[in-house]
Design a protein that fits this description.
Elements: H1 12-31, H2 49-69, H3 82-101, H4 103-117, H5 123-144
Helix pairs in contact: 1-2, 3-4, 4-5
Length: 159
């Protein structure tokens, strides 16, 4: 059976690849304004080169995606479930609240809320998992790696 005449629908990967290439080009252009370090002071890759390398890899993968999508037609996409929108909304709220509440408390509340949103109703399981994960992140980043995380008004609880 032959496809109906007229323009064939574009495969979604083509659009995604094009958007990634445009963003990569804009990001690469932004890196051209980075300060350069004299060769005598530089060890390894310069500060402008690493972002450019990451951008080049992204652009290369986008070109691969574009090449693989050629000649393919669009298939009907499944409907996005409402749970996906609720998850995005919750994560956006988490990013907004994080600077004021601090990383560990925000992460704890967000993980508990995500678990509840996704259907976990066993509080006796959900609460310890979220608290242990938050404690683990605190121990890894602050205690082990020495990275300071925003603590918010509850920083005194973290020691």
């Amino acid at each position: 059976m032959r496809p109906p005449p007229g323009p064939r629908p574009r495969h979604p990967d083509t659009t995604v690849a094009a958007v990634i290439l445009v963003v990569a080009a804009a990001a690469f252009a932004a890196t051209l304004g980075f300060d350069t370090i004299p060769a005598s002071l530089m060890e390894g890759m310069g500060p402008e080169r690493f972002p450019q390398l990451v951008i080049a890899v992204m652009a290369g993968l986008a070109l691969l995606l574009l090449w693989r999508s050629r000649g393919r037609t669009a298939e009907p996409l499944p409907r996005i479930p409402p749970m996906a929108y609720a998850t995005v909304l919750l994560l956006a709220a988490t990013v907004f609240v994080l600077p004021w509440l601090g990383v560990v408390p925000t992460m704890t509340v967000a993980m508990f809320a995500l678990g509840w949103l996704w259907g976990e109703r066993r509080v006796w399981l959900l609460l310890p998992v979220t608290l242990l994960f938050a404690a683990g992140v605190q121990a890894l980043f602050v205690r082990t790696l020495g990275i300071t995380l925003p603590v918010g008004p509850f920083g005194f609880l973290l020691g």
